[in-house]
Amino acid sequence: MSVTPDLMTRKVGTMGGLSPSPSPFLTPRPERRRLMDSRGVDWNRHDRDKEVNVQVLLRCRPLSDEEAKSNVQRVISCNEQKKEVFGPKSQQRSIYDQAISPIVNEVLEGFNCTVFAYGQTGTGKTYTMEGGIKNKGGDLSAEAGVIPRAVRQIFETLEAQNADYSVKVTFLELYNEDITDLLASDDTSRCPEDKQKKPISLMEDGRGCVVVRGLEEEAVYSVSEIYNLLERGSAKRRTADTLLNKHSSRSHSVFSITVHIKEATIGDEELIKCGKLNLVDLAGSENISRSGAREGRAREAGEINKSLLTLGRVINALVEHSSHIPYRDSKLTRLLRDSLGGKTKTCIIATISPSAHSLEETLSTLDYAYRAKNIRNKPEANQKMSKAVLLKDLYLELERMKDDVRAAREKNGVYVPHERFVQDEAEKKAKDEKIEQLENDLILSEKQVDSFRELYVTEQEQRLDLQSELNDCKVSLETTNKALLDLQESYRLAMETLKEKEIIISKMVSSENSLIECAKGLRNDLQYASDDISSLFTKLDHKDRLESENRNLVLTFGSDLDKSLKELHKVIIGSVSQQTQQIRSMEEQVQTNFATKFDVTQVMKSKVEKMAETYCSGVASLKELVDMLQRKASSDLNQINDVVASQATAVENFLATMVMDAEQVLNDMQKSLSEQQQILEFSTKQQEEGLKRSLIAAQVISSASMNFFNDLHNRASQVGKFIEESYNERSRQLVNFERMFKEEAAREERSALENIAAILATVSEASREILDSNKQENTRLVEEMLNMEQVSVCARKEVTEFLEKSETRYMEDTFSVAEHTTFMKNSLHHSSKRVDDSRQQWENTQSSISNLNKNNLAEIGSTVNKNISANIVAHKEFVSASQTVDEEFNTRASDTLTTINGNY
Ligand SMILES: Nc1ncnc2c1ncn2[C@@H]1O[C@H](COP(=O)(O)OP(=O)(O)OP(=O)(O)O)[C@@H](O)[C@H]1O
């Protein structure tokens, strides 16, 4: 094996890191890239577009002795046969051979590869990465981890290839965001504070690669040499005794192996290919309380968790293809930038514990590993460099270093020329300030971006919330609209129902009013009928009054006649006393005649009194009948009023839709009543006219009687003068006596004529006997009597004519009354019919409303019918009584006439 001395002997100065060309002498210059491009050497073009997922391995450690002793429950089981997961029985060798060895081969092919272990503290990360490095014999032990095995594979491969190569290693520790060079020399005699004064910082090389400034690269030539460096560096790692791990690593460590291999030449050009393997042992993710961390340990754990959280966020951002990947949030992610989403091939070994106590962290690790598995990298092999260019760069670097050494010797303690030192310091300071400013600006920008991103996420969540609320509002609006439509429909129906009810109520009110009006009309009709009956009774009273006046006239006539007779008697007595005894017999006869006349007069008086009694009894019966009818009518009216009043409230609640018919009926009834009123007025007028005619006739009769009696008086005066002249005082007294009797007979009218005639006959007998003695005087008396008879005949004729006229008029009046009565009957019948029609209509209306109204109307109807029938019966009784009186009156009148006629 041959190794280029320059590559193998020098330390690479202050620059080192994870990028494939962190060393100045490996940096491809522009002219070199052009050269390579012009040569068309692009060895890995076919790999550029290949994307590969991050490879994730899962390893579960066995229970520790303590856990086994305390019988901790095992919650993880692994299928050892399928070898999907490296279980507790998996050996370091098998894991390496299956998963890591291919990666190492990729490194030797010129790729950058990263293997890092991730898991809860105490799950075997350090064991997996480092393990037991070597046994006593110098060979790898079975517990040797990934790093020693990878180192051995690299050397064995390169040796097997017999290639020229150089291997350089760096070993750094990231603790509380501070980077420490674990391979730095422990010789601090010359400059004891050199290490503290030389901070290691992360810088970008302008091509996106991170360079660890100040980190020493150690060139190694054998496996054992690497093992020594590894042990020395591991020993420097900060460990602590925690509850979960007695040797818990409190920092992240990055062990990097960079391999340069000389390849076959193309012409005179020698090419160098470069590969790098980063082996990362992360600090354990832990639950601070469970890990027992206190104070400084807690802060330490917080920083560890912070780095791991940033690593998780970077993984999430890569998986979700976010535009911003927060590499810069921690030094760990800045170191691993190219390994996560970059050009590096990456393998993550996730370690878990089978213990039930670690279940929560185990699930978290599995989730972490699941997400990391989706990260896609674009592995790209490092460009190969020609040996000449590489040597030239090395020589330039060597010259620069020699200048530094020379300046240091000359200036005795100053290692660089002063100008250059000043210049470098100034440049460095300016660059540092600029870098610091840029970093601050960048941090601020990233914070702003993060805040904007959080704001954007918040806005999106709010928008989604608002969207969902809007949808809910739309749904509720639709529901509300439907409810509103339903309510509007219900409202419309309610309004229609209300309108119908209002119409029904208005019709009921109208019907009620019409019924009330009809009832009032009926009551008025009854009142009118009662008034009519009252007026009829008034007319009857008037008629009775006339009759009584006539009777009084007759009585007055009788009293006057008595008075005249008494006077005549006095005259006769005077003449008799003056006569001699010759006429004493005649006087006795005359006295006898006077007694007879008195008896006759008494009979006539009794008859007249009987007639008066008859009339009075008839009038009294009529009055009783009238009173009875009035009481009946008033009681019936009261009853009707009570019924109507009691039913008015009930009727008001049940009135319906018969307004027009009721109004029509009302109009008809009003019309009928007006007709009846007109008829009654006409009848009244007729009766008044008839009564007037009767009065005029009575006046005519009275005047005729007066004329007759005046004439008779004149005749008697003439007779008396003649007797006085012819037969002295006797003849003249006799004529006067005869004339007085005739006058008395004339006053007696119909009934008295008969007695008067008898008296006259008696008087004529006496007169003849008297006239026998004086024939001439008798002859003249007879002549005078004939004249008187002639006058009496004339008077009788006049009386007869008067009676005939009176009878005719009485018949006319009677006919008129009968006609009026018939008309009244018809009117009442018509009214009854109207009432029946009204009742029928009412019943129809009531039947549509309720049974209550029907019963009420039936009750009213029956009451009205009873009253009508009672009125009809009373009216018939009244008519019959009137007819009876009239007939009796006619009978008596005819008897009187018969008597008069018989006497004459
Ligand atoms: N697969 C395994 N087989 C046998 N022993 C193991 C295995 N994994 C871990 N161990 C043992 O478990 C203990 C803890 O392992 P290790 O220190 O590697 O854990 P860690 O994950 O690195 O912890 P921390 O994060 O605290 O550094 C060690 O004693 C180790 O020997």
TrEMBL record:
Keyword Coiled coil: yes
Main location: cytoplasm
InterPro entries: KIF11-like, KIF11-like_kin_motor_dom, Kinesin_motor_CS, Kinesin_motor_dom, Kinesin_motor_dom_sf, P-loop_NTPase
GO molecular function terms noted in the UniProt entry: ATP binding; microtubule binding; plus-end-directed microtubule motor activity
Residue ranges annotated for the Kinesin motor domain, each copy included: 53-375
GO cellular-component term (any): mitotic spindle
Keyword ATP-binding: yes
Record keywords, A-Z: ATP-binding, Coiled coil, Cytoplasm, Cytoskeleton, Microtubule, Motor protein, Nucleotide-binding
Locations listed in the record: Cytoplasm, Cytoskeleton, Spindle
A Pfam family assignment: Kinesin
Record function comment: Responsible for microtubule translocation. May be important for the organization of phragmoplast-specific arrays of microtubules. Plays an essential role in stabilizing the mitotic spindle. Required during mitotic cytokinesis.
Family: Belongs to the TRAFAC class myosin-kinesin ATPase superfamily. Kinesin family. KIN-5/BimC subfamily.
Protein name: Kinesin-like protein
